[in-house]
Specification:
The complex is a heterodimer of chains A (114) and B (115). With 114 residues, chain A is mainly β. Chain A has no helices and 12 strands. In chain A, strand 7 and strand 8 form a beta hairpin. Chain A is globular and about 40 Å long. Chain B is an all-beta fold and 115 residues long. In chain B, the strands form 2 sheets. In chain B, strands 2, 4, 5, 8, 9 and 10 form a 6-stranded mixed sheet that branches. In chain B, a hairpin with a 3-residue loop joins strand 4 and strand 5. Chain B is globular. The N and C termini of chain B lie far apart (37 Å). In chain B, 34% of the residues are buried. The chains are: A mainly beta (114), B mainly beta (115).
């Protein structure tokens, strides 16, 4: 069965510091991985995706994520956090062999302090 | 261009009543998804439509939930005999196609409260 784990409910970082939001996944086929962000009272916004190719994927707002097949991880990173990055982040996976919808993790709240 | 829109933005209903939630996908998007976001539960897939194919209903939690998509565009999610555990934010998303390369674009959601 497909699943996504985001082991941290909350991540706190200071503005200007690097940030990492962790995600691990489990699928039976090839994984297709996504990160979405949700600002308060707003819908989910697409950040980036890994389908194939380079393991390091760059996305919106300076975010990037690294696909690691051996560790079944797809951690979201940013070199220098901004207060405006504070939001709820969701990792999602789609199994290349089966399934049509995204399977989401439970989300990680990122709090960036000034 | 216009994104995915949903209506109403908020709905308060009494236990046992039926509710209808509407989703207008992005024009030209052939795939449409419904998800439910409950506090502490993350996002839960409900149902998926792709073109004229039969919908994937595998995520619907009970037979009180149903959805239809008319003319390959607007979709309505119906919850019959609502229960308090149905209280959640219901999100609709659309994408250009079924393929895994297509990201999904989400609407702002409908917050349903069952009293």
């Amino acid at each position: 069965a497909q699943s996504v784990a985001q082991p941290e409910d909350q991540v706190n970082v200071a503005e200007g510091n690097p940030l990492t939001v962790k995600c691990t996944y489990s699928v039976s086929g090839n994984p297709y991985l996504f990160w979405y962000v949700q600002y308060p009272n707003r819908g989910l916004q697409f950040l980036l995706k890994y389908i194939t190719g380079d393991n390091l994927v760059k996305g919106s707002y300076g975010f990037e994520a690294e696909f690691n097949k051996s560790q079944t991880s797809f951690h979201l990173k940013k070199p220098s956090a901004l207060v405006s990055d504070s939001a709820l982040y969701f990792c999602a996976v789609r199994d290349g062999q089966a399934g049509t919808a995204l399977i989401f993790g439970k989300g990680t709240t990122l709090s960036v302090s000034s | 261009g216009a994104g995915v829109s949903q209506s109403p933005s908020n709905k308060v209903t009494e236990k046992g009543k039926d509710v209808e939630l509407r989703c207008d996908p992005i024009s030209g998007h052939t795939a449409l998804y419904w998800y439910r976001q409950s506090l502490g539960q993350g996002l839960e897939f409900l149902i998926y439509f792709q073109g004229n194919s039969a919908p994937d209903k595998s995520g619907l939690p009970s037979d009180r939930f149903s959805a239809e998509r008319t003319g390959g565009s607007v979709s309505t999610l119906t919850i019959q005999r609502t229960q308090q555990e149905d209280s959640a934010v219901y999100l609709c998303a659309s994408s250009l196609g079924q393929g895994t390369v297509y990201e999904q674009y989400f609407g702002p959601g409908t917050r349903l409260t069952v009293t």
